[in-house]
Amino acid sequence: MFDEYEVIPAVDMQEGEVVQLVQGERGTEKRYGDPAEAARRWVEAGARTLHLVDLDGAFEGERKNAPAVEAVLETVDGEATVQLGGGIRTAEDAIGLLDRGVDRVILGTAAVENPEIVREVSDEYANSVMVSLDAKGGEVVVSGWTEGTGLDPAEAAARYEELGAGAILFTNVDVEGQLEGVKTGPVERIADAVGIPVVASGGVASLDDVRALKAAGASAVVVGTALYEGSFTLEAVIDAVA
Q1: Is residue 113 a part of any domain in this protein?
Q2: pTM of the entire predicted model
Q3: Contact criterion met (CB below 8 Å) for 200 and 174
Q4: Sign of torsion, CA 159 161 163 168?
Q5: Given this model, what pLDDT does residue 223 score?
Q6: For the residues of 156-187, what is the DSSP string, one character each?
Q7: Quick check: is 46 in a domain?
Q8: How much is the pLDDT for 172?
């Protein structure tokens, strides 16, 4: 899935616009314009994968940014891999998106509530499911990071690998969107627990953070706020981990 370590720009969407939230809290968002324009900019800067999240879907359980997703797919047109999450609650939803041209679907709440959905989608599209494990205080949280599950992220990751997940997306909500740096310990635990790629997200503020996550065993890192706020350019961070 990832032949070498990748830096993946985030295109988080709310009400048809790119936004970044602090610790996943609604009302903290800062807006960054049109998703298709952002996608084009990141692809032109060297992104091989784009990370799309329908935040309205994540919070409300129903995808609300489908037109923006369509615009991104048309804009990218195969020039980069597209992974999409947020509001995907059924296998039919996931398979429909894969049929449409999304390369990977990200399942979070749906995978926690019905783990067999991972197997069902993977049987149709091998290595197409990325299970999202978002953690607050060491506990997996769902429904837009608002509900605790009691699950340990590393144990959950191993379970989803057995069910056919092609990758794990781990977001440390405790540091998400704050530009205060990453915590590598949880990433290392998950990477040690599974043989599939682990994609890290949350807290990246510097090139050193990106390098640290690579050293912790991540196969890729999702970067949002730091790119949109100009802490570094995508070209610079790609060069830094080459």
Answers
A1: yes
A2: 0.93
A3: no
A4: positive
A5: 95
A6: HHHHHHHTT-SEEEEEETTTTTS-S----HHH
A7: yes
A8: 87
Q: How many domains does the chain have?
A: 1
> How far is Cα 161 from Cα 225, in angstroms, rounded to an integer?
29
* pLDDT score, position 176: 67
1 located within any domain: no
Residues noted as catalytic? 12, 134
Instruction: Give how far the C-alpha of residue 52 lies from the chain's centroid of Cα atoms, to the nearest Å.
Output: 7
What CATH number does residue 29 fall under? 3.20.20.70
Residue in this structure with the two tokens 């990748």, named with its chain if needed = 6
**Amino acid, res. 201:** S
**For the chain (length 242 residues), average pLDDT per consecutive 10?**
95 93 72 97 98 87 87 96 95 96 95 96 97 91 79 96 98 74 93 98 92 97 94 95 90
Element (H, E) at 30: strand 30-31
Structural domain for 228, as ranges:
6-240
